[in-house]
Amino acid sequence: MPTTTPHTTRIGGVELHVEPPIGAGDPLVIVHGSWTDHTAFDAVVGPLARSFRVIRYDRRGHSRSGYGGPAPRRRDEDDLAELIETLGLGPAHLVGTSYGAVISLALAIRRPELVRSVLAHEPPLLGVFPDPAVEVLLANIQAQLADGDIAGGTRRFFEEAVLGPGAWERLPEPLRRAAMGNAQTFIDLSEDPGWASLDVPALAEVPRPILITTGETGPDWLRRAPVAVAELAGIPTVTISGAGHSPHLTHPDVLVAVIKAFALGGDEHDPAAGLDAPSAAIAPVSRRAVVSEIVSDTAAKVVAEPNLD
Asked: The domain containing residue 93 runs over which residues?
């Protein structure tokens, strides 16, 4: 039976660090990607808490959460499901980035009753649309890390695989420390052949609003696979202008606007009305139109920010 303290929830045999919920409204769970932890979303949690009850946690093996040994992606999905159930959050909006986006989409397929909506930013779905060169690069980085070169392998991942040259030095020092401390979980992905796969036909049948977002900077592979999956599944996509793989760090105001426009359906959502209300069933195209307009308006107002991508 799961046990919960203000900052710790025992789930799946490990202690997960869970930040106390903040804000009021529909629950919204942020699912971070590999390498990082809940603190990567510090810039967006406050603004989101004006419209949602925001929950952040460190996935197993990351920062303040227990490790428990290598685990397949399905274990992360189960952790997320159990977290939602344990905290009495369901159904919840899910906001996932990178590997956290894949976890969020996969949970929506398996347990749609726990999900209110999913916003997935650049899920790295190489198992659906392979890119041999990228797969070789990731495997080489995993081998470098496994050989003990944590600093070099971590820097190489951020600069060669996801953010671009010079990005490592531009990352805040706490995030660099967290990334190196969480490197083992990236090594562990090599033991899960399905980590980057997804049942696309099943995704197309999920009875919940889903939006896939991408940036426009950084390596092309991070945009190609998500957009291709979205096209196959009939899911709308939105490009966050000027952003890359980490809009929560580089363009937090725009990301918050996108999340609100999508999850709230253009301010038409009534939390008391339930999932069967018309506001919760807004057509994906309508939601995309609202989001696209918000992105354009917000991007025009955003002042120059440190580019970490």
From this structure: 8-127+197-301
